């Protein structure tokens, strides 16, 4: 399948969904700038997927440096066609014993890092009249959860930012996609108990769904449908009742 993209940048590419997406696009002939903090993991990714993988050591928690580096890369490669802000962390932030460093770290990565990643190539895309920005949010953006206040809020911020950005740039030729996966087997979910993760997906399955949604330039893709639909129904309930159900489930 020949894709419209010649170049792509994917953050969080050292493991999980980011690594899977890097392999998925490289196999289809896209030059992928695979970005993450762990250089050794990126080198092993290139060995696995071939020379179309271009390792890029990058810490998105350092938002200013991230914006500067991706802006430079956009100029160096003649314009990035696709940018996927995938890097994210899901540390618990229990309100009973809240710790500011943990809260700040989530915001630095999931909000500031994601927006720095997406803002950097945007002026070039607008000028060229083409491009595709993708943000990996979460179904957690659509419902509150105990001990995950900061994570849920960070993903809600990203989803709303992408939806609003789309109104500005879609008419200029720039596509914007919001991805909202549910539970996926990864380093981040490995710490959870199996019973806490209904309808959990294998990484390859989730990557395939996300890749296809990106290629068809979906505005929003939430999956699996069982959880997405359940969240939609839960949000129709009074908040007090919804809170009781969520607390019981988690």
Domain count: 1
User: Helix share of residues?
Assistant: 40-55%
CATH architecture designation: 3-Layer(aba) Sandwich
Distance between the termini: 41 Å
Instruction: Give the percentage of residues in beta strands.
Output: 15-25%
* Unreliable residue runs: none
Rg, rounded, reads 18 Å
Order of helices and strands: EHEHEHEHHEHEHEHH
In oligomeric terms, what are we looking at? single chain
> Biggest sheet, strands in spatial order?
3-2-1-4-5-6-7
What's the number of extended β-strand segments?
A: 7
State the helix count: 9
What profile does the largest beta sheet have?
Answer: 7 strands, parallel
Instruction: Name the CATH homologous superfamily.
Output: NAD(P)-binding Rossmann-like Domain
- Structural class by secondary-structure content: alpha/beta
What fold name goes in the CATH topology slot?
Rossmann fold
Averaged pLDDT: 92
Class, according to the CATH hierarchy?
Alpha Beta
Short synopsis of the structure:
With 250 residues, the chain is of the alpha/beta class. The protein is built from 9 helices and 7 strands; from the N terminus they run βαβαβαβααβαβαβαα.
Describe the 3D structure.
Strand 5, helix 6 and strand 6 (174-181) form a beta-alpha-beta unit. A 7-stranded parallel sheet has the order 3-2-1-4-5-6-7, sandwiched between helices. Helix 1 (16-26) crosses helix 7 (203-215), helix 3 (63-76) runs parallel beside helix 4 and helix 4 packs parallel to helix 6 (149-169). It starts with 6 loop residues before the first strand and ends with a helix. It has helices at residues 16-26, 39-49, 63-76, 100-119, 122-128, 149-169, 203-215, 225-234, 239-249, and strands at residues 7-11, 31-36, 53-57, 82-85, 131-136, 174-181, 220-223. The protein has a single domain (7-249), classed as NAD(P)-binding Rossmann-like Domain (Rossmann fold). The longest helix has 21 residues, at 149-169. With 250 residues, it is of the alpha/beta class.
